[in-house]
Amino acid sequence: MKRNPHLYKRLLVPVRLLMVLPGIVALMLHATPDAVPDTDWTEYNGGPDKNHFSSLTQINTENVKKLKVAWAYASGGADTLKNTTQMQCNPIVIKGILYGVSAGAQAFAVDAATGREIWKTRLNDDTFNMTSRGVTYWSDGKEARIFFAYGALMYALNAADGKPVSTFGTGGKINLKEGIERPGADDYVVANTPPSVYKNVLIVGTRVSESATALLGDVRAYDVISGRLIWTFRTIPRPGEYGYNTWEKENYKNVGGANSWMGMAVDQKRGIVYIPTGSAAFDFYGGNRKGDNLFANCLIAVNASTGKRLWHFQTVHHDIWDRDIPAPPNLFTITLNGKKTDVVSVVSKQGFTFVFDRVTGKPVFPIEEKPFPASDIPGELASKTQPIPLLPEPFTRQQFTVDDVNSFASNKEEIIETLKKSKTGSPFIPLGRERTLFFPGSDGGAQWGGASVDENSILYVPAKENPVFSSLIDSPHSASGKAAVSGKQLYQTYCAACHGTDREGNHDGTIPGLLGVTTRYTNEGILQILAKGRGMMPAFTQIKETDKKAIIDYLSGKNSSSQSSAKSGLSTVAYTHTGYNRWYDTNGYPVSTPPWGTLTAINMNTGKRLWQVPLGEYPELTAKGIPPTGTDNYGGAAVTAGGLLFIAASKDEQFRAFDRQTGKVLWQTKLPAAGYASPSVYAVNGKQYVVIACGGGKLKSKSGDKYVAFALP
User: Fold this and answer.
1) CA-CA 20 to 30 A from 126: which of 57, 314, 517, 618?
2) What pLDDT, on the 0 to 100 scale, is given for residue 154?
3) pLDDT per residue over 74-105, tens digit each?
């Protein structure tokens, strides 16, 4: 039969289509809208600029409502029945692998597209407990390392299998206590925030105790290959060093703290690391450290290769309020009066934003030195003025008076009467023997989650506005000498500041109560916690064994005594404080007028606020017709070029996506536990993901160990 060439050509196309159809179907099944190239989340808070920003647009304001759980990873270590755990980690993503830290404080690596575990450490060094906010990645193209702080030890891990790199330091680790000792100091030091890297320089800040026995807060830089110390920046200067005259003579021997626990930002092009610092210890009394106390409470620009100071600015003089800079700086570019300027900014617990020229340190907006009250505590010389930015506009209210008491507070009249007898009404009122109000509270305002900045130089900052009260009381050390000190006195000195004078903890569960603690733990278990710390509680290595046992006796209903209140030679001060006491009504709500938690957008080109919305809600109040009040919150946001801002952070265990232009909530979902962490945004195999650590464990919320990633279907 003669073949019809035209028919053959007509049949050939369908036959070829059938041959490639399986491949087309496979592509359709795995395809996502507008497939994007693989995009990493290279460092803690997104990159060296710490802006929490992703250029990805696959998930946007139009399709964000379609987000679904892509995978979940149970990292391990959470015990919701007995031991409260937390996860504050902002995971990094490098070449399709996500690196994070578990609820049990172990580093891990998982496939970023599936959540499948690749490796997890099993470190068990005899060191201090801690809550880690993440890890740092370094590679020279030949090998890759993960830097992970496990208590007081900084490890270099092989990125491929998680095993320690034996040639780094001693057996793969550095002991961070070495080099920051001083006479009379305790042993407590951890690195809770990931270090920064500039070329082959690893720059490390630490968390030390906040008592009079704190170690020095020096910032150190190490060689990423060998672990060799390269440079040290002393935050409490020695004789002949810049800033020494802002302290009393030889304070570097008898005062600690002024440490950089919150993380740093690095200008990789200029080779400058921007280092924020906290207050000197003890936080609430400075009669033993008269002066402005450089470099406590400073933003310091340092040559990343040499450690040389380039410039600095002190955000609080002679801090006696624990007003640490709470988060890493942000590096970005603004347009002011038609001129582009590279800037660095820091947010504050007080609700201020300080903005500086990145090279010169000159303030971009006016900052005025304004007078504040003197202290009435003998020996204390509070600074006469404090620096107050005129712009950008504050993102929190600055005072709490009887006019600011919540209208639906359950015991409003009692609150007002108490407030009338308290020291309140302005920022920077020195603590006295009577109740003194912090507003915003002692941990913000802004907290360690920090601010996000988009490509248009809009800054987004979560904050809280919960009144906190405290006061100063005599320390048993100052009057006891060699006399016996009771277990109750020792408890008031070492424990009451956090767990409350009545042992009931604080009202929102951020810090647990200790009533009945001896029925939940053995004496040995309590001694272990005192020795190693747990979560955000530091170790109390400065307390003698006899004192620890006296405290345990007091907690169990006895009141034994100890012959001395501290190890011989340890630093002491005349006062202690009565705790970080969040003020709630009898129904458990903050006594101030809402909002209690906020998300604010500020145009950093002008310093003007664009919008502010509540962050979080109490469903039972919303059901009564009360507009969302916002809640206490911990953690930051991630902002994307897709027009979105992702944030968990709130007490209500929700994960939300906001329209970054308006502050409107476009999507939200319930998490398995509260996400007191910052989300990460990345893309693998053409698909964009957003992931959040769901650790809970604060604010009376349950603990968890899951990382949950979301993507479009």
Assistant:
1) 517
2) 98
3) 999 976 445 689 999 999 999 999 999 999 99
Residue 423: DSSP 8-state: B
pLDDT of residue 81: 43
* pLDDT at position 182: 97
Of 612, 698, 541, nearest in space to 184 by CA: 541
Amino acid at 425: G
Q: Give 152: exposed, middle or buried? Use CB within 10 Å, 0-12, 13-18, 19+.
A: buried
The CATH code for residues 476-572 is 1.10.760.10
**Other CB atoms closer than 10 Å to residue 626's CB: what's the count?**
13
Strands (E), 350-486: 353-357, 367-371, 385-389, 436-438, 452-453, 458-464, 468-470, 472-474, 485-486
Bridge partners for 354 per DSSP: 346
Distance CA 345, CA 380 (A): 31
pLDDT tens-digit map of 20-31: 444 444 334 344
**Stated pTM of the model:** 0.90
Q: pLDDT tens digits for 151-176?
A: 999 999 999 999 999 999 999 999 99
pLDDT value at residue 509: 61
3-state secondary structure string, 510-563?
CCCCCCCHHHHCCHHHHHHHHHHCECCECCCCCCCHHHHHHHHHHHCCCCCEEC
What residue spans define the domains of the chain?
A: 476-572
Strands laid side by side in the 196-198 sheet: 196-198, 201-204, 219-223, 229-233
The answer to whether the CB of 381 falls within 8 A of the CB of 449 is no
**Could you tell me if 387 and 368 are in contact, meaning their C-beta atoms sit under 8 angstroms apart?**
yes
What single-letter amino acid sits at 54?
Answer: S
**Helix or strand or coil: residue 148?**
strand
